[in-house]
Each structure stands twice: as structure tokens, then as C-alpha cells.
Amino acid sequence: MATAPASHPTTDRPTGDDPRDRILAAAGREFAERGFEAATVRDICLAAGVNVAAVNYYFGEKRRLYIESVKHAHRERERQVPEPRWEPGTPPERKLRDFVGNLLERMLGFGQPDWQVRLMLRELLHPTEACRELVEDYIRPHFDGLVSILRELSADSLDAPRLRRVALSVVGQCFLYRAAGDVVGMLVPASERESHHAPARLADHVTSFTLAALGAGPPLGGAWSRGPGEGAGSDGSEDGAP
Amino acid sequence: MATAPASHPTTDRPTGDDPRDRILAAAGREFAERGFEAATVRDICLAAGVNVAAVNYYFGEKRRLYIESVKHAHRERERQVPEPRWEPGTPPERKLRDFVGNLLERMLGFGQPDWQVRLMLRELLHPTEACRELVEDYIRPHFDGLVSILRELSADSLDAPRLRRVALSVVGQCFLYRAAGDVVGMLVPASERESHHAPARLADHVTSFTLAALGAGPPLGGAWSRGPGEGAGSDGSEDGAP
DNA sequence: GATTGTTTCAAACACGCGTTTGATGCGATC
DNA sequence: GATCGCATCAAACGCGTGTTTGAAACAATC
Question: Which of residues 93-132 of A touch B (CB under 8 A)?
Fold first, then answer.
């Protein structure tokens, strides 16, 4: 069932002459495209332009090469899309927009090849031993940053669990476009996809959706006059007791 | 690197005596757990209690068995968790809560084994030839149902593309818990996970978050936030038939 | 009981996999 | 120039895979 290697040998061969790096790059692409089991050491070495034995010479075994290539992809992506920094006094609405924009850019950005993200995605969806490291070093700091932005936005009116759930709502909205992008593409007309599914456009949507949910921005739908006692056509049976 | 089969031979052997069905069930579990490449015909047959040659006798080849087991899982899940029906006049807030509850119950529900969902998830994340069928027959109708609920909720003040993006925000919030559940589990303390990540609790959160964003419910961070009491009887007693 | 067609089985087959091996090339060091 | 250590290579080694085979077990029909 094996076909040609996933990478394009003519363009992919890195100019760097370090065989170790060439193997890491080729392995990342192959693992991202085919998964750990289906990717073969032979194809990786063919794409990297090295002998089959090189993998075991430099990495000992296939599993170790996989772990190293996940870490490598993570570092590369972090270098390519650095996280935003704000000077003191930046309004939290702006921070949220920047954060979401950065997250989506990192996940969907067309500027760079996306195999790094796809490789990391595989880890998140079906964790192996490389996953916990990835979460602790990479994801948790970002997640905590998001939570503190949301804490600012809600003016400390939400407790930590609630803030975490809101943060997961934000991440979930972005995550869908990356993880299930193919299915989203089938559900949405092509014209709309091109015009409104660019990272910046999606960031606008997710941000305003979240701000509205927190009461820190205008609601998306009908008129919602702030202040108790107004229902805007709602019959008042919101969420709690069904 | 192969370990023991994913299924539990003592409890999994179906009572039905049709070998074809036994193979389908065992194959679904193995493919869901390990993926197409890593799952082996031998393990599947061991779990199903049939000879190795049975797979080729009944299905011709491994690939065909995979496709058939995806379809089988889809049909089974649809039978187990039917979509909710409402009588005319049901308020859209209630419909949204039911829809989200049903979606989460279907994705996360602990009542049934979850291998069907995991198998379908694999298809969505890395589509093969079985995917398009799955989207058109199964996902699009549900998605359209959600869009029309949201249209009701927004009192026709949002155009179709905007409605679709809101719908994707709803689905994304739920999807994260299913697809990246392991990572979510690492980010959230265990106590909170147990108390607030049951399907019904998550449905409450996603629903109120969405209603607030649409202006059809009180914002989460503002004056409406209810006191520390909360907890008002939101057990899972009322989504679609479990 | 013989015959026919279907289902099950243990055994084998051919192939591709990850990994190992031992020889070879090559630059640095003495 | 001899020696050493590192890097590279073609070839092979086990092993597990999906698949095939040919015979045995079984059920139904004549």
C-alpha cells in the first residue's frame, strides 16, 4: 500500500549539509503525512538523501527519531511564529484579538509549510510519550496566558474553573479549523471559505464571539440591552435547570 | 512494538453467532485504537475468535474490512443515540441546549463504548475514501439543524455565512473535548475534570456561552453571573434517549 | 449414503519492515 | 606514511505482515 514518499525530493532537500538535520526534516514530513507506523525509515532516508543505516547511526531507533522530530517541529514553529508581547496598559480586548490571531496564524498560516503543525496535531490527538513534554513546555504556558487575558476581561468576576472552561471554548473554536479543516471545507461553500476563512477573518469572528459571551463586547445577534430584566425575546429558560 | 489486542476478549466477544458481525465489531475496536496501519488482521481475528483466513473470506482484503467497519460504526452510533426531536413551539434556547447536550453525549457519553466515535474521528481528521459519505449522510444534516436553531435564536439578524461561523464555534467547543480530550485532561485539575466535565455540565457551559455571544442570554462575566450556588439540577437527565 | 456447496482451519508464502553488520572512504593527529 | 576515529555504504538478517492454499468439517439435497 506504500506509494511515493510524501515530500518533494526536488525541492525539499535542505541546503544544510548536516545529515542529522536533513533526516529530521524529512522524518517530520513523512511522519506528519503518514503517521508513525505507516512512515518507513527507507522513505525517510530516500527523501533525506542518506543511507538507511544513518537513522540508526544518529538516532538509534525509529521511535527515538520520531520523538526528536516532534520536538524539532515544535522548536521550528515557535521560531517561525513567535508569541505576541504587549506593553503594559494594553487593553485586554486587544490582547485577546492578538492571542487568537497568533494561535490561528500558527495553526493555519499559509506562509510556511504546515507539516510541523500536522505532526504536533497527531501527538495531541493520539498522545504518545512525546506528548506530555509538548504540553508542559509549549501548550500550558500559552493556555495560562490566555486564562489571564480572560481574567482581565471578566474583571475577576469568574473563578478559575470557569475561566478555564472559557479558555477551552476559545481554543476549541480555533482548533476545529485546524483539526477538522477538511470536513469544514466540505460544509462551507468554496466562495465563503476563500473570503472568510483566512486566519485574520476567523480571528475577528472568534474574538468578537468570545467578547460578546463575556459581556465585554456587543452581541452578535439581535439587540441585547445590557442590564438585568431584559430578555430580547428569550423566554428566560437559559441553561441551568432544563 | 505490538502489544496485546485493544479489546477485552473476555467481555467483547459478541453473543451473535454471525462471524461476519463478530469480525466487524472486533475490527472497529482495533482500527479505532490503533489506526489502519497499526491494527493487524491477526489481532482482529483473535479478538473476534475466528481464523485469520476469515477476513479475506468475508471481506476480500484488509482495506475493504476497514471501510465496512467505519460504515458499521456509523450506523450503530446513530441507532444508539438518536437525534432529539422537538414539538412545534419549543423555544430555540431549549433546542440549542438539547442539541449541544446530544452532541456531547454522542461524543463523550460513557454509557456506551466509545470506539465507534473514535473510529469516525479518525476519518474526520485524516480523511480517506470513507469520509465524504460520512459527511454527507451524517454530519451535514446535523450541521444544518444547528444552523436553523441559531437562525431562530438570532431572529434572522445574521446572514448565512455568519450563522455558519457561529455554528462552527458551537461545534468547535464540543469537538475539542472529544478530539483533544487527553490534552484537556492534562490542563485541568483532576477534581475539576470530574465535577465539571461530564457531558451535561459541558453542555450547560457551551450553551450559555453561545447564548450570551448571540445576545440571547446573560453574559458570563457581567452582572448576571449567578451566585456561588449554581448547580441547579443539571444532571444529564434530558438529552436524547441515551 | 453419496454428492455438492459452503464454511473453518493450520500451515505456508511472498514481501516489506526496522535493524545490524562488516567493509570502505576520509580527514585529523602523531 | 601509519594510525586512529568517525561517517557512509551495500548487503543481509530476523521478523511480522497481509494474503493464499489445500484439506478437513459441516449442512443440505438428491
Answer: 121, 124-127, 131-132
pTM: 0.80
* Domain covering A71-224, topology: Tetracycline Repressor; domain 2 (1.10.357)
Contact flag A169-B209 (C-beta cutoff 8 Å): yes
At residue B2, φ and ψ (nearest 5 deg) are: -75, 135
Output phi, psi for B109, to 5 deg.
-45, 130
Q: Tens digit of pLDDT for each residue in B20-55? A: 999 999 999 999 999 999 999 999 999 999 999 999
Which parts of B60-189 fold into alpha helices (H)?
Answer: 62-80, 92-108, 115-125, 131-134, 140-153, 160-179, 181-187
A:132-171 residues touching chain B, CB 8 A cutoff: 132, 135-136, 139-140, 143, 153-155, 157-158, 161-162, 164-166, 168-169, 171
Could you tell me if B175 lies within 8 Å of chain A, comparing CB atoms?
Answer: yes
Q: Looking at the predicted structure, is the pLDDT value of residue B239 above 70? A: no
Q: Residue A159: left (phi > 0), alpha (psi -120 to 50), or beta?
A: beta
